[in-house]
Amino acid sequence: MQDNQSFSVKGVLRGLHYQLGKPQGKLIRVLSGHIWDVAVDLRRESPDFGKWAGFHLKAQSSADQLQLLWIPEGFAHGFLVLSDTAEVFYKTTNLYHPAGDRSILWSDPVLAINWPIEALDGIPLSVSPKDALGKHFLDAELPPVEVTHLV
Fold this sequence. Notes:
By secondary structure, this protein is mostly beta strands. The strands form 2 sheets. Strands 2, 4, 5, 7, 9 and 10 form a 6-stranded mixed sheet that branches. Strands 1-8-3-6 form a 4-stranded antiparallel sheet, with no helix packed on it. The longest helix is centred in the C-terminal third of the chain and has 4 residues. The chain has one domain: Sandwich (Jelly Rolls). 27% of the residues are buried.
């Protein structure tokens, strides 16, 4: 539905982003550089609700195969740039919906995401003012429970 591309320098942490009302699934690809990508399950009906998974993603090279990461609708997403620079491309299943834009604090103690900050080799972490104001997981407005109907 929509293509997005971002360029960041080492130490930039983006997220944890998600949308209410018009959730986005995301197909992530690193065009240049190396990131550590995180997805958090926000689906209350899921047995993995509130759990996170992190993945090293690098640009394709002659030595590395193409790496893609699919993050379904109902997940928060963020990443940390580990290389000097990184260009990230992602396709989404829905258009950006500013009214539904939400963010969970990257350092939330309940989620306890193990960001590889030591890999920054002393370069300070850089978080946007918007992301620094993310909500704590227990206070965040999360997607509603999906109701399925038996036919």
